[in-house]
Amino acid sequence: RKCIGVMTSGGDAQGMNGAVRAVVRSSIARGCRVFGIHEGYEGLLHPELIKEMDWISVRGWLSVGGTSIGTARCKDFYERPGRLIAARNLVKAGIDALIVIGGDGSLTGADKFRSEWPGLLSELVEKGELTEAETAPVQHLNIVGMVGSIDNDMAMTDATIGCYSSLQRICEAVDNIDSTALSHQRAFVIEVMGRHCGWLALMAGVSTGADFVFIPEKPFKDNWQEKMKEIIMKHRSLGKRKTIVIVAEGAHDESLNKITPEHVKTLLSNDLKLDTRITTLGHVQRGGLPSAYDRMLATLQGVEAVQAVLDATPETPSPVISITENKICRQPLMDAVAATQSVAVAIKNKDFDKAMSLRDAEFAE
Ligand code: ATP
Predict the structure, then answer these.
(1) φ and ψ at 184, to 5 degrees?
(2) Judging by DSSP bridges, how do beta strands 327-332 and 319-324 pair with one another?
(3) 119 in helix, strand or coil?
(4) Which of 19, 53, 133, 317 is 20 to 30 Å apart from 204, CA to CA?
(5) Could you tell me which residue ranges the Phosphofructokinase domain spans (predicted)?
């Protein structure tokens, strides 16, 4: 009987609870036992944080934001001694498959753990911490990844669990700001999350009809100040009473100088004489109810993740569950991680065409 551990790791995202719920119920329906690993990789280091889950333990979770089994960043798991403790605790619990819901860091850690697994078990037996009889049933560790991230920054999937809820939050905030902007003919500079990824900023710009958007993958040339002022004045001359500029938190110019909301505000206030305010949306973007899309994505992917565990052989590379052109599918986890990391490298090397081409189709357009 397969014994599956499910955990959430890295930054929280709306829909993670729906993913855990789907994994728990799908596992039980397929005859597996399932354990919630609480507080991300910290949970692997502390046996009391590994708790068996049943059907009703996830009742009502679809509509709850964040992650109820907790998430964390865990320093110890970066190092082999930490992963040795984790392996011992998993074997003691009889767990031989892990479904990890997190970002590229969490998935990298999981794959590394899998590749070291046989060596970790031998070392634990040698040290007398485990017996051959305990390790015999769990010779292989299956890893399946699911991507939970508000940033939509993972390659080889069209959407990550949480990104559409977060986009919704941003749109609601901009709609609220619109009322006051229109009343006073104000300009607002709105900073949104996303780290290296401009998806949230770009899609928020599209969805709210913003005047100007700054994203990391496609910086404006060094004269962006003039370009921005020209476009905003053109919109004002057409009778627009408000101005909305969206700045991704990772935005910069072509020389990688950071573009801050304060910088944009100074230009709008001093040069264009617009009454300008800054709104940093911050953690509001991670909060609140998961959108219908995220509930659906989390559920369909959770079911697929359990199926992937059941299909896995010792030779199968670890998969990550993705959605591509509206179909739930599996991709090689480490290929997706490598492609994701190469966007950050391309940006660092100022190869912005490459950065754009590595992003999803909607970006390239
Ligand atoms: P987010 O996109 O929200 O930041 P993430 O999964 O990329 O999510 P990280 O902070 O990179 O977030 O990773 C979460 C945890 O995963 C780390 O605290 C660590 O415990 C583990 N981890 C990350 N990278 C590795 C690695 N290379 N080796 C081992 N463990 C890792």
Answers:
(1) -105, 5
(2) antiparallel
(3) helix
(4) 19
(5) 4-309
Q: Which of 111, 151, 153, 211 is catalytic?
A: 151
Q: Ligand 1: residues within 6 Å at CB?
A: 9-11, 41, 73-74, 77-78, 102-106, 108-109, 112, 149
| Residue range 227-245: mean pLDDT, rounded | 95
CB 262: neighbour CB atoms within 10 A?
A: 11
Average of per-residue pLDDT values in the chain: 94
For 147, what's the count of Cα atoms within 13 Å in the CB-facing half-sphere? Answer: 32
The torsion angle over the Cα atoms of residues 170, 171, 173 and 176, rounded to 10 degrees, is: 170
Q: Tell me if 231 sits within 8 A of 223, measured CB to CB.
A: no
Distance (angstroms) between ligand 1 centre and the Cα of 20 equals: 18
CA atoms within 13 A on the CB side of 209: 7
**pTM here?**
0.95
Buried b (16+ CB within 10 A) or exposed e, 157-188: bbbbbbbbbbbbbbeebbeebbeebeeeebbb
Q: Copy the structure tokens of residue 40.
A: 């991300």
Distance in Å, CA 74 to ligand 1 centroid:
8
Q: Write out pLDDT tens, residues 16-44.
A: 999 999 999 999 999 999 999 999 999 99
Torsion of Cα atoms, 148 then 151 then 153 then 154, to 10°: 10
Index of the ligand 1 atom closest to the CA of residue 12 = 3
Length in residues, the chain: 365
Ligand 1 atom 23 nearest Cα:
105
197 is in an annotated binding site: no
- Predicted confidence (pLDDT) at residue 221 exceeds the cutoff of 80: no
Q: Give yes or no for residue 270 having a pLDDT over 90.
A: yes
Give this complex's ipTM.
0.96
* pLDDT per position as a tens digit, 141-185: 999 999 999 999 999 999 999 999 999 999 999 999 999 888 889
**What is the per-residue pLDDT for 66?**
95
pLDDT in tens, 98-109: 999 999 999 999
311 is catalytic: no
Helix then strand then coil, in percent of the chain rounded to 5, is 50, 15, 30
Residue 48, pLDDT > 70, answer: yes
